[in-house]
């Protein structure tokens, strides 16, 4: 489902095997936007089933030149919600950026789905990671920003320590990016309390365009 983006179209493609005639086993979901406005776009992906996916974005400058492709992996489950932010810059020579925007809830879902896919092969490790995220969420809810940040840094250390041992494949990247996103948001919240907005400018004025897509 597409929301609030002028001159846009949504596509869902399933290609059968031309050689064997077997039906398609995967579906590609895509959005095309003709001459989009420069600014920040929010991407919301809603999971339909358990599995891995890749979010890819191709952008073009206003002179028609191709910018480097942007790709981020993700893990989905039935009803899961994943969020990303695309900062689109149309100036020739500039490069747009795509980042993951995590919540405590989405991070817990990433841990759970990674465990189900055996990207985390230890129930104990998955439980320990989940407890850290829950503790960080509780600390943040109480306004204990520094305590929450400390727990998230411990979460990152555990993910790095278990990478290639009990945490495999793209789960390492996904969980580290989840933690980095949460740390960044907490830093901005802390700066807001101190009336320091230099590193946490809000682009809401350019953020009226949003898109939803289902992996």
The number of distinct β-strands equals 9
Relative strand content: 15-25%
Note the overall shape: globular
- Radius of gyration, rounded? 19 Å
- Structural domains: how many: 1
**Main sheet: strand order:** 1-9-4-7-8
**How far is the first residue's CA from the last residue's CA?**
11 Å
Question: Total number of helical segments?
Answer: 4
Average of pLDDT? 88
Give the gist of this structure.
By secondary structure, the chain is of the alpha+beta class. The chain is built from 4 helices and 9 strands, in the order E-E-E-E-E-E-E-E-H-H-H-H-E.
Task: Explain what this protein looks like in three dimensions.
The protein has 215 residues and is of the alpha+beta class. It has one domain (12-189). The protein is built from 4 helices and 9 strands. It has helices at 104-116, 123-141, 145-162, 170-193; strands at residues 2-3, 8-13, 28-33, 39-46, 51-57, 70-76, 81-88, 97-101, 210-213. Strands 1-9-4-7-8 form a 5-stranded mixed β-sheet. A two-stranded antiparallel ribbon has the order 2-3. A hairpin with an 8-residue loop joins strand 7 and strand 8 (97-101). The longest helix is centred in the C-terminal third of the chain and has 24 residues, at 170-193. The N and C termini lie close together (11 Å).
């Amino acid at each position: 489902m597409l929301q609030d983006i002028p001159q846009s179209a949504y596509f869902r493609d399933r290609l059968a095997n031309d050689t064997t005639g077997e039906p398609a086993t995967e579906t590609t979901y895509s959005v095309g936007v003709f001459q989009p406005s420069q600014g920040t776009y929010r991407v919301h992906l809603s999971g339909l089933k358990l599995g891995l996916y890749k979010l890819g974005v191709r952008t073009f400058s206003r002179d028609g030149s191709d910018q480097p492709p942007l790709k981020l992996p993700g893990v989905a489950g039935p009803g899961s919600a994943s969020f990303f932010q695309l900062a689109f810059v149309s100036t020739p020579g500039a490069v747009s950026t795509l980042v993951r925007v995590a919540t405590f809830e989405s991070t817990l879902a990433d841990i759970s789905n990674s465990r189900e896919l055996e990207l985390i092969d230890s129930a104990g490790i998955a439980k320990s990671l989940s407890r850290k995220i829950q503790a960080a969420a509780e600390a943040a809810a109480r306004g204990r920003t520094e305590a929450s940040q400390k727990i998230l840094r411990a979460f990152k250390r555990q993910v790095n320590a278990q990478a290639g041992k009990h945490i495999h494949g793209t789960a390492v990247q996904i969980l580290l990016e989840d933690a980095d996103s949460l740390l960044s948001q907490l830093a901005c919240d802390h700066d807001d309390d101190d009336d320091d907005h230099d590193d946490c400018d809000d682009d809401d004025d350019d953020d009226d365009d949003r898109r939803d897509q289902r992996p």
